[in-house]
Amino acid sequence: MRTRALTRVHDGGRDTRRALADVDLVVEEGEFVCVLGPSGSGKSTLLAVIGGLDRGYEGQVELFGEDLGRMSDAALARLRGERIGFVFQHFHLLHHLTVIENVTTPALFDPRADEEASRSRATKLLERLGLADRAFDTPAELSGGQRQRVAIARALLREPRLLLCDEPTGNLDAETGARIIELFEELHREERLTIVAVTHEERLARAATRILRLHEGRVDTKEHAP
Ligand SMILES: Nc1ncnc2c1ncn2[C@@H]1O[C@H](COP(=O)(O)OP(=O)(O)OP(=O)(O)O)[C@@H](O)[C@H]1O
């Protein structure tokens, strides 16, 4: 993933905000990057842009060697579905579906996906995340931390190459948070999954291979080892 002179201005009428300003960034395949920075520094905006969800940017974003600006909406949607997993700050679970149905939703949009295989992978992910016994509950019956883990399982269903997470351990108690961090470390080490995670949490940042700091939409040029 590479950005060149990436700028994102949110036009709020009189109140125009520059959420990202001239960001030049390279994330190599297999990296585990944590993005830190104060509230409003542009972290969520950065994830949305590099994940192809927000196309209102200036500059260039390259993902898996392709220039996002040159892709059609359909091609970008396909790329997102096949290669990117998102864990959103507010989970975005579907409340009328069960946990296992939520986890398998990404496969619904792929006509080639095998329903049995998706369900079996979803079950394994839920086991790995300590939620096997909640598969048939609805999100409303879960705690915030459990919903968070459902969102993580869903993001991993399609075996993405890039995992983008906004505060993935934000709502979790220490033990569950540690379990998620271990899972990220495993995925990074064993499957060479590229992870970019926005966080305020020291524990998660320590697990990363690189720390990136944002300040008022700019990347702090002194990059830090964790
Ligand atoms: N849809 C939007 N419309 C207008 N302004 C926006 C929008 N989204 C973000 N912004 C503004 O862009 C700036 C960066 O927001 P962003 O959500 O990326 O920050 P953040 O670092 O993720 O913050 P937090 O840690 O509080 O989640 C802020 O000033 C915010 O008010």
UniProtKB/TrEMBL annotation:
The keyword ATP-binding applies. Coiled coil: none annotated. Residues 1-225 form the ABC transporter domain. It comes from Polyangium spumosum. SUPFAM superfamilies: P-loop containing nucleoside triphosphate hydrolases. Gene3D superfamilies: P-loop containing nucleotide triphosphate hydrolases (3.40.50.300). This is ATP-binding cassette domain-containing protein. Pfam families: ABC_tran. Keywords: ATP-binding, Nucleotide-binding, Transport. Belongs to the ABC transporter superfamily. Macrolide exporter (TC 3.A.1.122) family. One of its GO terms (cellular component) is membrane protein complex. One of its GO terms (molecular function) is ATP binding.
